[in-house]
Amino acid sequence: MTNVTKSRPLSPHLQIYKPIPTMIMSIVHRLTGAALYFGTVLVAWWLIAAATGPAHYDWASWAFGTILGRLVLFGYTWALIHHMLGGIRHFIWDLGYGYEKHFATKLAIANLIGSVVITLLVWAVGYAVRF
Fold this sequence. Notes:
The protein has 131 residues and is an all-alpha fold. The protein has a single domain (21-130), classed as Fumarate reductase/succinate dehydrogenase, transmembrane subunit (3 helical TM bundles of succinate and fumarate reductases), CATH 1.20.1300. Helices cover 78% and strands 0% of the residues. Helix 1 packs across helix 3 (67-94) and helix 3 (67-94) packs antiparallel against helix 4. The termini are far apart. One of its GO terms (molecular function) is metal ion binding.
């Protein structure tokens, strides 16, 4: 008996599939979910510093105020918004809508564009209110 599957992979791998927006956004959704764990630790650190006293709070505020700190906060903001929009996209699917290929692709692209635009708006409003 000849095994006809010897020359084929046993299961498909990422090299087999052509990346499409829905696949990429699914991967990014998982990555942003993992990044939110790290960002939430930073939020907890900031809250603990605020509760501990002015010296700790000033040090935490200084750390978040550096260029690296602001870059991390910007990334955390984007990850939070992107993950939220991805969750809404999945909720739409859970309701039984949006399975059509073209609509799902447009929704995935809108998820990416929307997360960038909303993140920029949040930071713009934050800076406008700050001064």
